[in-house]
Q: What sequence folds into this?
């Protein structure tokens, strides 16, 4: 394959990986925007979402792309429970407590999943496995295109939800000014539960799309992508959804470029190298502002 | 029973020392002695993490300093022929130096940015170890590390235990001393209110860097000790597990107290080994996770505050008073 072909290949891989990061980072941004909490265990929701999809698929054999909705619904429920019983009691006691609490959640989810589903690597076979579409000089698996399509659809759906529905508007109001939202009669605790649940649902979508595209998975799959998603929202600006989208795409591209140039081992480390460089140059992130 | 807090602390310390010194005579099991050595090492590690937390900085990547200390000490010992008892402190100095470098990028950041940068840093160090540095570190396979004491010496395990105990006591005493000096007060001032600390003439950046260096140094000592005790090291040292354990120990024991890391490490080691004997593998982590979350919500000052809390409950019961808001 010629140089241009390799270049296009890396771009496509980057876009594909970027989709997963976009969903994760948008979910985190939603939660951070409304509740101002930092949940390092967000990747565990991605993992649980992936396992729920896989389990339903193994039992029923339904097209896994359709199971994504069930998985997202399940994660809204799980997220609501976690918000109510873990994060709400410590809301406002400091960021460090939230980080420590997420470590507890990571222990529980990873090892709980290992008990239920074992810690072996598993995989799901997509019904479109092996089908590729020609794209100029290279052929792109249909799964990758479907994943980009699903990501775009979910993000557009979220955008409409935030702009057009009452709950969406209440979420934006709470995120802009919590006290003000309370004053105008918004039940902010209810909004917290909804935002947390929605954020988890986006993680479930990311997990589902990741495994449906043929990636192998185990209970520890989620933690590194989640921390990278945090890096993305810091780079892209806290609470900014367009920032999360651009950041996610850039991270996907940078990672795959680095894996190609420096070797696959650098895939995880490179995102943190970028993060550290950006934070040294601009301690508030690329588009971030002062304040929380 | 009425004890003043000072007296309790004094008697507690003496009692703990007596137990620590006499415990090897109560058991002749090599397994338990080995466990005790590892526990002491983790007390140093947890105390090191806690020292950084004193200045309001929570690291999620302390495995990096633990591992750097271990690798540096092993490599220095292998290339110079010096005794591990000397290279431990040289290796830790390397960890402290790296700690200052990473501290330079972290000290101006908000607390949770810092958690992420340190977490990522551990991954970067691990990647470097297995890629660029593989020729000297042995890559994923790891390398052998010279033992603290040769197993041919009669009773070497007992000597090793006391040596590690001595280093542990020295480390905790050093932290205790630091926290009593102006440096310690500056750490606390920065943690409580950075703006006021600045107004009082404390330079937060300088003191945070100092906290980073001291904490990385002690973490490096712990890492080097562990590796020279085991005799082998692999890049798994930099793993997330090693970064999360000190956090778990300290939170359970009591964040920001001298006794917290010690109490937490001992309590959790006992629970952990107890659960192991019931045959749980993944279940152990689930239980630790649940305990951690319960502690954060219901016992935010950790196990060391338990006696106070219980006394408070009993008093309230006796007087049949409505619960008042104790801080």
A:
């Amino acid at each position: 394959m010629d140089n241009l072909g390799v270049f296009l290949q890396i771009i496509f891989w980057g876009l594909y990986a970027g989709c997963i990061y976009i969903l994760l980072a948008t979910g985190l941004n939603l939660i951070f925007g409304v509740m101002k909490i930092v949940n390092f265990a967000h990747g565990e929701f991605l993992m649980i979402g992936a396992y729920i999809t896989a389990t339903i698929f193994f039992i029923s054999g339904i097209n896994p792309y359709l199971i994504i909705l069930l998985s997202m619904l399940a994660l809204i429920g799980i997220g609501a429970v976690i918000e109510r019983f873990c994060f709400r009691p410590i809301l406002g006691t400091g960021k460090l407590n939230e980080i420590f609490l997420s470590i507890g959640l990571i222990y529980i989810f990873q090892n709980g999943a290992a008990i239920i589903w074992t810690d072996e690597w598993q995989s799901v076979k997509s019904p479109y496995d092996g089908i590729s579409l020609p794209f100029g000089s290279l052929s792109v698996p249909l799964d990758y295109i479907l994943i980009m399509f699903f990501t775009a659809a979910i993000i557009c759906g979220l955008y409409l939800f935030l702009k057009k529905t009452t709950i969406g508007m209440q979420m934006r109001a709470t995120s802009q000014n919590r006290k003000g939202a309370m004053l105008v009669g918004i039940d902010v605790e209810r909004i917290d539960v909804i935002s947390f649940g929605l954020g988890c649902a986006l993680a479930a979508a990311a997990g589902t799309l990741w495994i449906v595209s043929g990636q192998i998975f185990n209970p520890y799959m989620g933690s590194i992508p989640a921390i990278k998603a945090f890096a993305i929202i810091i780079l892209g600006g806290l609470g900014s959804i367009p920032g999360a989208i651009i950041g996610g795409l850039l991270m996907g591209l940078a990672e795959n470029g680095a894996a190609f140039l420096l070797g696959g081992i650098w895939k995880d480390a490179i995102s943190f190298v970028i993060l550290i460089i950006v934070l040294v140059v601009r301690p508030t992130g690329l588009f971030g502002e002062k304040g929380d | 029973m009425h004890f003043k807090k000072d007296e309790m602390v004094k008697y507690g310390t003496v009692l703990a020392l007596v137990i620590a010194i006499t415990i090897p005579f109560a058991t002749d099991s090599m397994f338990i002695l080995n466990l005790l050595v590892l526990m002491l090492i983790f007390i140093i590690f947890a105390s090191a993490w806690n020292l950084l937390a004193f200045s309001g900085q929570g690291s999620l990547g302390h495995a990096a300093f633990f591992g750097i200390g271990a690798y540096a000490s092993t490599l220095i010992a292998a290339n110079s022929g010096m005794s591990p008892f000397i290279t431990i402190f040289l290796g830790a100095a390397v960890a402290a130096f790296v700690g200052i470098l990473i501290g330079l990028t972290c000290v101006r950041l908000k607390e949770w940015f810092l958690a992420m940068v340190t977490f990522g840093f551990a991954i970067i160090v691990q990647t470097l170890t297995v890629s660029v540095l593989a020729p000297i570190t042995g890559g994923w396979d790891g390398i052998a590390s010279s033992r603290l004491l040769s197993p041919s010496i009669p009773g070497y395990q007992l000597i090793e235990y006391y040596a590690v105990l001595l280093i542990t006591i020295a480390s905790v005493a050093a932290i205790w001393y630091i926290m009593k000096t102006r440096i310690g007060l500056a750490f606390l001032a920065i943690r409580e209110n950075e703006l006021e600390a600045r107004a009082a003439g404390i330079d937060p950046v300088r003191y945070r860097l100092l906290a980073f260096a001291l904490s990385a140094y002690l973490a490096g000592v712990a890492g080097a000790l562990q590796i020279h005790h085991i005799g082998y090291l692999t890049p798994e040292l930099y793993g997330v597990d090693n970064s999360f354990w000190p956090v778990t120990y300290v939170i359970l024991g009591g964040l920001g107290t001298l006794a917290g890391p010690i109490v937490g490490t001992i309590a959790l080691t006992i629970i952990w080994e107890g659960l192991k004997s019931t045959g749980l593998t993944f279940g152990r982590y689930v239980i630790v996770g649940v305990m951690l979350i319960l502690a954060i919500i219901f016992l935010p000052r950790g196990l060391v505050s338990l006696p106070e809390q219980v006394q408070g409950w009993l008093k309230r019961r006796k007087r049949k008073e409505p619960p008042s808001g104790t801080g």
Q: What stands out?
A: The mean pLDDT of chain A is 88. Strands of chain A lie at 132-135, 138-141.
